[in-house]
Structures are given as structure tokens and as C-alpha cells.
Amino acid sequence: MAIKQLSDGGPDGVALGQEDDKIGFLGATPSAKATGFTAPAATAATSTTPFGFSETQANAIVAWIRAADAELKAKGLIGS
Question: For 66, which of 22, 39, 41, 76 is 20 to 30 Å away at the CA?
């Protein structure tokens, strides 16, 4: 079976979905765009605590990674 291209090759690129559309990939149930992703503070790492981050910074980083991971899995972009 031939691959179907979604792009027409135009210089402006391709957008998949509109603001309120739900999207799913590779058989995943379509879901709405995730909200509430707040990147951890961009405070510079230090050498005064383990790994150069305070416990609060480390927890924020882990929480952000877990939320991003869950959303990518929900959309079908990465496996479980």
C-alpha cells in the first residue's frame, strides 16, 4: 500500500487539527490538547545539593517529565 502524504508541499507547512480538535495517533483514542504544562523553573543548577538541584527543583522536573510522558502515551506517540 502506498504512503498517503498529508502535505501538499506548500511553503507554509502542515497543521494537523484545529484549536479544539482531538487528535490520536497509531490507534490511540483521540484526545484534546493537553493544558497545564508548566516547565520547571529555569533556576541554574548548583553544586551545593545532590546532582546540583534542590529537592523542590528535582520534584518539579520529575513531575513535568511524567506529565509529558503521559500525554505522549495518550496520543499514541510513544508506547506504554
Answer: 22
